[in-house]
């Protein structure tokens, strides 16, 4: 097994020690916060001991460890996990959020039943939970998805297993934050065996911290195969609506529903069906209250059996695991997270389904793909800065699509070619991971 022989400075070790002390001080408050979050999302109150490094699972050593924080990372990891298991590897899949864990359980149910994949929570990032995790599972290699840079994980695993950052993403905002710590950030990033970047811009940002060899492998999300059953369900439901347009607000964040609804409500003539799929289902009550106050008729997906001829103004997507269906129903998609400064959610899924996207001004989580989509004519940017201006831009785009549906058809054709052009990240990632070093040993 490769050891990390990078020299560690005394200052870095001192910072790690202080970091451990801060974690021990904060732990009671972290646990209270975890329990508090469980009021709205009960999953946070389950498997709490795993977050401290205590696991009930039977022996499962020498597997490849993949860390996928939440839903997006878990879905993005799917093509790679399928490819690794096809090569007779076993997978230890860790998460941070209950929704990520539930998504993984659904995606990899057959692998879990066969015993080739185990799921658990990654423990909190300080010494003894991380040490217990590493001692319990003894993974052969660690693969952290996208933005996960955890000091204790990297420090305490440096002489035990190689860890790679895959599908790596480092925005300008994040790189500026890391730059505040100067040489300490360089030492932290040097603890990775490899960093595989999504884009050339990401690679350039990593280079600022001494990562000279940073292959660009593309984005694994383009290789994700969406559930064909869900796609068929969405298409069937869309067909039942006849000529009525459907606009999907996907993975919306706080404040975005209000902005979109206000723009949508000003449309002339017959309004399209507005399908709202909130990022966090714990916000359903506030969305419903807003719709009630404005006397907008709505129903929830959980209350009806599709395909149903919807006469309501709004449909709320309040179910887990049906995003592909909700996107498939759409004529076009407003991308959540882009309107209120939170960096944007995954625009790759709607594009892969041939759906043009509307992007607000905040796209730093998917900066390069967003720009490429705009330049390719499959995404429409909202460039104004104030909320009333953005709302007015939204209204103009809605009205234009309603008056000229042929524009949607032309953009839809371009989407498929764009998605196909960007596929292949899984194969490139496997090439750089040096699989001969990851052959499974018996337990």
Q: Could you characterize what this model shows?
A:
Helix 2 runs parallel beside helix 3 and helix 11 (256-265) packs across helix 16 (387-403). The protein is 44% helix and 13% strand. With 443 residues, it is of the alpha/beta class. It has 2 domains: 49-218 and 424-438, Rossmann fold; 228-421, Rossmann fold (3-Layer(aba) Sandwich).
Features:
six-stranded parallel sheet; single chain; Rossmann fold; seven-stranded parallel sheet; alpha/beta; 443 residues
Summary of the model, kept short:
It is built from 18 helices and 13 strands.
Count of β-strands = 13
> What is the name of the CATH class of the largest domain?
Alpha Beta
- Distance between the amino and carboxyl termini: 17 Å
Helical run tally? 18
CATH topology annotation of the largest domain: Rossmann fold
What's the topology here?
Blueprint: H1 10-37, E1 64-67, H2 71-86, E2 91-95, H3 98-107, H4 109-114, E3 117-121, H5 127-137, E4 141-145, H6 151-156, E5 163-168, H7 172-179, H8 183-190, E6 194-197, H9 200-207, H10 228-240, E7 246-252, H11 256-265, E8 273-278, H12 284-293, E9 298-300, E10 314-316, H13 323-329, E11 332-335, H14 348-352, E12 357-359, H15 367-375, E13 379-381, H16 387-403, H17 405-421, H18 425-432
Parallel strand pairs: 1-2, 1-4, 2-3, 4-5, 5-6, 7-8, 7-11, 8-10, 9-10, 11-12, 12-13
Helix pairs in contact: 2-3, 2-18, 10-13, 11-16, 16-17
């Amino acid at each position: 097994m490769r050891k990390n022989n990078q020299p560690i400075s005394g200052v870095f070790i001192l910072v790690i020690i202080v970091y451990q002390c801060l974690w021990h001080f904060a732990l009671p408050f972290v646990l209270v916060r975890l329990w508090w979050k469980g009021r709205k999302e009960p999953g946070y109150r389950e498997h709490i001991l795993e977050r401290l490094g205590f696991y009930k699972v039977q022996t499962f050593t020498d597997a490849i460890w993949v860390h996928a924080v939440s839903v997006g990372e878990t879905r993005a990891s799917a093509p790679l996990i399928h490819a690794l298991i096809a090569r007779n590897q076993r997978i230890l899949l860790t998460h941070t959020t209950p929704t990520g864990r539930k998504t993984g359980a659904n995606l990899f149910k057959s692998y879990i039943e066969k015993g080739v994949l185990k799921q658990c929570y990654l423990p909190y990032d300080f010494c003894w939970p991380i040490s217990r995790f590493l001692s319990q599972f003894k993974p052969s290699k660690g693969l952290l998805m996208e933005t996960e840079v955890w000091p204790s994980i990297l420090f305490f695993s440096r002489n035990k297993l190689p860890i790679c950052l895959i599908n790596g993403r480092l925005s300008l905002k994040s790189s500026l934050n890391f730059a505040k710590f100067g040489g300490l950030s360089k030492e932290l990033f040097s603890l990775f065996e490899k960093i595989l970047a999504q884009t050339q811009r990401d690679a350039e940002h990593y280079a600022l911290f001494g990562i000279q060899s940073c292959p660009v492998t593309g984005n694994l999300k383009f290789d994700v195969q969406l559930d064909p059953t869900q796609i068929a369900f969405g298409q069937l439901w869309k067909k039942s609506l006849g000529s009525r347009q459907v606009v999907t607000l996907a993975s919306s964040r706080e404040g975005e529903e209000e902005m979109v609804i206000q723009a949508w409500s000003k449309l002339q003539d017959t309004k399209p069906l507005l399908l709202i799929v909130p990022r966090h289902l714990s916000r359903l009550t506030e969305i419903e209250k807003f719709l009630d106050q404005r006397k907008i008729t709505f129903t929830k997906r959980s209350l009806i059996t599709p395909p149903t001829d919807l006469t309501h103004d709004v449909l709320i997507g309040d179910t887990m695991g049906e995003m592909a269906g909700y996107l498939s129903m759409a004529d076009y998609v407003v991308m959540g997270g882009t309107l209120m400064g939170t960096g944007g959610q995954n625009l790759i899924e709607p594009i892969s389904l041939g759906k043009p996207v509307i992007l607000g001004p905040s796209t730093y989580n998917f900066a390069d793909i967003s720009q490429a989509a705009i330049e390719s004519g499959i995404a429409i940017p909202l460039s104004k800065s104030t909320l009333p201006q953005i709302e007015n831009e939204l209204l103009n785009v809605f009205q234009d699509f309603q008056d000229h549906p042929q524009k949607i058809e032309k953009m839809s054709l371009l989407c498929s070619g764009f998605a196909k052009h960007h596929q292949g990240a899984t194969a490139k990632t496997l090439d750089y991971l040096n699989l001969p070093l990851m052959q499974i040993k018996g337990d």
